[in-house]
Design goal:
By secondary structure, the chain is mostly helical. It is built from 13 helices and no strands. The chain has one domain: Mitochondrial carrier fold. The longest helix has 34 residues. It starts with a helix and ends in an 8-residue tail after the last helix. Keywords: Membrane, Mitochondrion, Mitochondrion inner membrane, Repeat, Transmembrane, Transmembrane helix, Transport.
């Protein structure tokens, strides 16, 4: 009996491919809850690993992007990707390239886990409703439905981990020459709570949510739709059967990341600037001693857009876009492929596309 209990969850994996079959198993026996727990854990682990691997691989570019986003146009230290990376290396050493990555991974691991898991659940739910609405049990997700599922996943994941994102941003812009305010992630969280209140942990949340809808939505929609198109049409001999090679999947992920970040990037800039509001040392850390703290104060998202464009021009909304583009291409690609590879290793047969 004990051996049967061990085998049952694994054998059940291959039988559960949608919400209807999950409900059927739940009605027929008590093994369904055990499967659900195992499946959830595997999916969360795969998403977390994918996030950690992909973000660490591009940590130097992530830090440079944030420094470019928040620096003052009258006190330029970082002029581009190569120069910026060299400047960080020269002034802060190798460790400076990965500053804030610990807090970043602490945020991205749960964020990625929740995001991928939420997308799977949202996709199954939306597909089930779509099949019921159309009366066609063989109906598949359309690109628009995938966009909706991705948007839901992005909103849930961003909201759940947003305080970590704010703290990561503040840790990242600190340099060796800056007056240190935060010794680490937990110290930063407690300091913000004590000095600025709990609402400060969600500064810039609105543009983040607005930005995450096209960003995550397009990432999933483009990735899944592109994979589906390649499998069905098999162009240029890229696909021999129903499986795509790792290289092809990386290319799909790169295309998805490029489209998503280009559309949502201005909102990311505004979010990052709003996160710096209330940080007493932000003026000297970010904008230079010649600028007053008031230049960093915004009453809201629209005000931040207006002041940024008025004082620095429309191009300021795309500060850091080049290193971000260089970062996004491998990051999103690695995240998608890592997620699928880890799920294969863990023996989960149901993938995102399914």
């Amino acid at each position: 009996m004990a051996s049967e209990d061990v085998k049952t969850p694994e054998s059940a994996v291959s039988t559960i491919v949608n919400l209807a079959e999950e409900a059927k198993l739940a009605r027929e026996g008590v093994k369904a809850p055990r499967y659900a727990i195992i499946s959830i854990c595997k999916s969360l682990v795969a998403g977390g690993v994918a996030g950690a691997v992909s973000r660490t691989a591009v940590a130097p570019l992530e830090r440079l992007k944030i420094l470019l986003q928040v620096q003052n146009s009258h006190n330029i230290k970082y002029n581009g990707t190569i120069q910026g990376l060299k400047y960080i290396w020269r002034t802060e050493g190798f460790r400076g390239l990965f500053k804030g990555n610990g807090a970043n991974c602490a945020r991205i691991v749960p964020n990625s886990a929740v995001k991928f898991f939420s997308y799977e659940q949202a996709s199954m739910g939306i597909l089930y409703l779509y099949q019921q609405h159309t009366g066609n049990e063989d109906a598949q997700l359309t690109p628009l439905l995938r966009l909706g599922a991705g948007a839901c996943a992005g909103i849930i994941a961003m909201s759940a981990t947003y305080p970590m994102d704010l703290v990561r941003g503040r840790l990242t812009v600190q340099t060796e020459r800056s007056p240190y305010r935060y010794r680490g992630m937990f110290h930063a969280l407690s300091t913000v709570l004590r000095e600025e209140g709990s609402r400060a942990l969600y500064k810039g949340w609105l543009p983040s949510i607005i930005g995450v809808i096209p960003y995550v939505g397009l990432n999933f929609a483009v990735y899944e739709s592109l994979k589906d198109w390649l499998i069905k049409t098999k162009p240029f001999g890229l696909v021999e059967d129903s499986e795509l090679s790792v290289t092809t999947r990386l290319a799909c992920g790169a295309a998805a990341g490029t489209v998503g970040q280009t559309v949502s990037y201005p909102l990311d800039v505004i979010r990052r600037r709003m996160q710096m509001v209330g940080w007493k040392d932000a003026a000297s850390v970010v904008t230079g001693e010649g600028r007053s703290k008031a230049s960093l104060e915004y009453t809201g998202m629209i005000d931040a857009f207006r002041k940024t464009v008025r004082h620095e021009g429309f191009g300021a909304l795309y500060k850091g876009l080049v290193p971000n583009s260089v970062k996004v291409v491998p990051s999103i690609a690695i995240a998608f492929v890592s997620y699928e590879v880890v799920k294969d290793v863990l023996g989960v047969e149901v993938r995102i596309s399914d």
